Amino acid sequence: MTATVRPGLTGRIGEFADVVAARTGKEFADYTALWQWSVEYPAQFWRAVWEFFDLGPLGSSDDSAVLADPTMPAARWFPDVTLNYVDQVLRHRDQSGAAIVALDEEGRRVVVEWTELPGRIADVMTRLQDAGVTRGDVVAAYLPDTAEAVVAFLATAALGATWSSCGQDYAPSGAAGRLAQLRPVVLVSGDGYRHGGKVIDKTADTRELLEMLPGATLLRTEDFTTGQPGAQVVTEQVPADHPLWVLFSSGTTGRPKGLVQGHGGILVEHLKAAALHGDLGPGDVFFWQTALSWMMWNYQLAGLLCGSTIVCYSGSPLFPTADRLWQVLADERVTYFGTSPGQLQASRKAGLHPGADHDLSALRTLGSTGSSLAPDLFDWVDAEVAAGLPVSSISGGTDVCTAFAGGSTGVTVVPGELSVRYLAVAVHSWSSERRPLIDEVGEMVITAPMPSMPVRFWDDPDGDRYRAAYFSHEWADGPDPHIWRHGDWVTVTDRGSLIIHGRSDATLNRHGIRMGSADIYEVVESVDEVAEAFVLGVDLPDGRYWMPLFVTLVAGATFDDSLVAHLRTAIRNRLSPRHVPDEVILAPGVPHTRTGKKLEVPVTAILAGRPDVSVDLKSVDDPELIDWYRGQHPPER
């Protein structure tokens, strides 16, 4: 008898679909059918997730036990539940093998075994308690991506305290701009890290940061121990919406917003994303190259929820050569590798052949986020990493600490697209009249609540900043206070996949035709000589519209009239004659947030001469670049 093939419902997501089908009597022919059910019946879906992962009693069989109030932004999830995120991690403590593997760019390797993890957590819990940390207090971290950082987070969460972290690449004032808002009881820090072959000593910076955090006690990771074998971790049971961590917006044009996310919401969202969509479980090795200032560090912790090994990496991903991370994949037998378009682009332009040069046979999925992944990079992965390797380009954000859309096991990957809308994510493309669009560019909206949406913003008692951030967009007929507008241009295809076109507040509106910056980058950055591109659409005070294209070049490339003509022709022929830039300008660099997002919106505002916008240089990866861009001006009439 031939088994029924259900596209997109293989692996753990297939097991989940079988359980739901048996319980509800519904048949799911493919992924789309399961997604449609999940958005139509969110309470039933999240109950099914809760029970599939055996997370404990919910209190009653009513939908209200899962979703007490379905109205955004006031949605209330799991109102009668008490739990602790760390309990789901520690249910895997009897496994053999590594829970955490931590590496630096010089190859130093630290391993924390699953059986060792409780003792490590218990040791740090005691240190935190000795420093006065109790339930509800904030523990701030100023650290590189290390095993000690993961253990410190787990100890914090186990106590019912709230975690917030910042990478040591931030200067003390930049870190304090985030962490001081939280009035932490403890600062966890370390002596420093290695980057680009250099030792970066952070002891003085740590002392300076500590002075900016009144009342905080310093806890050094160098003082952590392996704990006691057999130590028991007794976790503090908290409500589902009890703060697990505070993440921060980029804060490039104002005070960074503290996004408070809860134990229950993060737990179910990360199990859904990592275990169902990512198909992670015991025996897998999950490595997302990240830093503590980026929500992907928090997202990678989901591997522990699934019983997988997670790999931490501290240092430059391109040192000593652009091949460094591919060597890590081979050495650690990574099964799911998460990276950025920038790292893949650097690998391509360095002429790497990772699949030929390394044993990547364990690799099952390659994930990418941070910006749109151009189709040519999908093709490069297929040609140079592994033929047929599924590429999961995901889009979500710090706002929810998960993905709205991305890849999923068994779903066909189309270059340049995010394969599916994630389960229970009611993401759509809307016109300005709030009309759903298919195969047309529109505003990305979320029309139903997600469990990991912020419980609240920090220091926002009336919810005004929260509502202003997501629920105040002016549609053609006025604002809709119950629709999450995310700020991206998106196309939803007739197959249910997504194409992200860039920020809708950084639109290139040339001759009345709108286009996202990501479409320009796809064309320009595919040119071998170009390392990175930065395109802006600037409304000038005199009524003119200026569209400059800034480029940086790969080593050895020459910027001349021939290259400029080639770029203009490529944009004209492959994209649109209406979006050929007014000027192509060689730049010393492209400014980013410290999590790698190009600063299109604030730099556009600067060039437009808007006095209401100032850039927080502490949030910029290379602050000196901002002054260079301030000096750029359109040609005279």
From TrEMBL:
Residues 522-597 form the AMP-binding enzyme C-terminal domain. It holds the Pfam family ACAS_N. InterPro entries: Acac_CoA_synth, ACAS_N, AMP-bd_C, AMP-bd_C_sf, AMP-binding_CS, AMP-dep_synth/lig_dom, ANL_N_sf. It comes from the Bacteria. One of its GO terms (molecular function) is ATP binding. Keywords: ATP-binding, Ligase, Nucleotide-binding. Residues 31-86 form the Acetyl-coenzyme A synthetase N-terminal domain. Residues 112-449 form the AMP-dependent synthetase/ligase domain. The keyword ATP-binding applies. One of its GO terms (biological process) is lipid metabolic process. Belongs to the ATP-dependent AMP-binding enzyme family. This is Acetoacetyl-CoA synthetase. It comes from Williamsia sterculiae.
